[in-house]
Amino acid sequence: MIKDPVCGMYINEEESAGSIIYQGKKYFFCAPGCKLSFVISPQKYIQQSSSDISATAGTNDLSNTEKENDHENN
Ligand SMILES: [Zn+2]
């Protein structure tokens, strides 16, 4: 069983309606529509730790600024 990244459904690889290799990893889909959605905007369906890290780094800068602002207000 493998997870369809678009709808989150678990499917058998043999029964998948389609598969795609994206960034070196193979993804399987339960339906052609799911595959199409993934092809259009793969980033939307991949929760990569790498993007989380960059997003967190940016957030840290913002939160630091906010804390400084709060301190000034107090
Ligand atoms: Zn699906």
Structure write-up:
The chain is α+β, with helices and mostly antiparallel strands. The chain has one domain (2-67). Helix content is 51%, strand content 19%. The protein contains three helices and four strands. A hairpin with a 2-residue loop joins strand 3 (18-22) and strand 4. The termini are far apart. Residues 51-59 have low confidence and may be disordered. Zinc ion (ZN) binds next to loops.
Features:
74 residues, alpha+beta, two-stranded antiparallel sheet, 3 helices, 4 strands, binds zinc ion
Brief account:
The chain has helices at 32-40, 42-45, 49-73; strands spanning 2-3, 10-11, 18-22, 25-29. It is α+β, with helices and mostly antiparallel strands and 74 residues long.
